[in-house]
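Progress report, Aim 2. The chain analyzed during this reporting quarter is listed below.
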Amino acid sequence: MKKVLDEGKLILIAIPVLIWTLLPIYHLFVLSISNQESMLAGKLWPDQPTLQNFQIVFKQQHYYLHNFWLQMFNSFFIAVATGLITLFVATFAAFAIARLKVKGGRTIMNLALATYLIPAAFLAIPMYKAMGSYGLLNTQASLILAMVALASPYAIWVLKQASDKLPKELDEAAVMDGATSLQLFRLVYLPLMKPSMVVIGIYALLLAWNEYLYAFLLLSSEKAVPLAVGLGLFLSADDAPWNLLMAAGLLYAIPPAVIYYGFRKNMVGGLTSGAVKS
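Predicted structure tokens for the chain:
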């Protein structure tokens, strides 16, 4: 009986949370299949649903959508590059700190984590000044480097926690067999760290995919910005075509959902392995 009551309480909590989470997505979908006349009617379902908005988006048949596919590609490029570079930096750093016990490594990691005490929005202007000093403004490299800087501290921390859980006897056995540090990294460390590395790669990728503020500040060319900033241009119009914006937004939301669904098993395992501080 107690188990049934506990499950009932859990359901009572889960249902409102689920509705609250799905409600914006539902409105996004309803507006994306509404025509210009009916989208502001306030109905829960349009009288005449249409896919014409998606057709306009696919064919880039609106002024604000002329660079839709190019900006979608920019989003992919920036997100994938951020994910790969963050993974490269964090994996080597975690290996050096956790397995090679590099002197001062823990201090550096803690200092890097301390940067999270400052909200990322407050770092945007200093980042803008730094990129300007190095001549990187209005290049996608500036946004990629900024995203790597924001993602790396957490990535190193998670991978370091996961590294601590690996049996140290494996390292000792490999060293006794004559393995160098690089062989230890490549043949022992990397295969065991794959689940956590998948999590960190996806985390950094999604961070860059969803970024707006830094992309808006660091990039100004319509052909260089990611789609998130490109869709923001809709808001500059007095009579913005919200139905087209919602259709484009729905398409923009599909890739991260597919990525998360495809790697969901790795996400659970990787998050669990790096979730507890040892």
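The chain has a mean pLDDT of 87. The first helix runs from residue 2 to 32. These observations will guide the mutagenesis work planned for the next reporting period.
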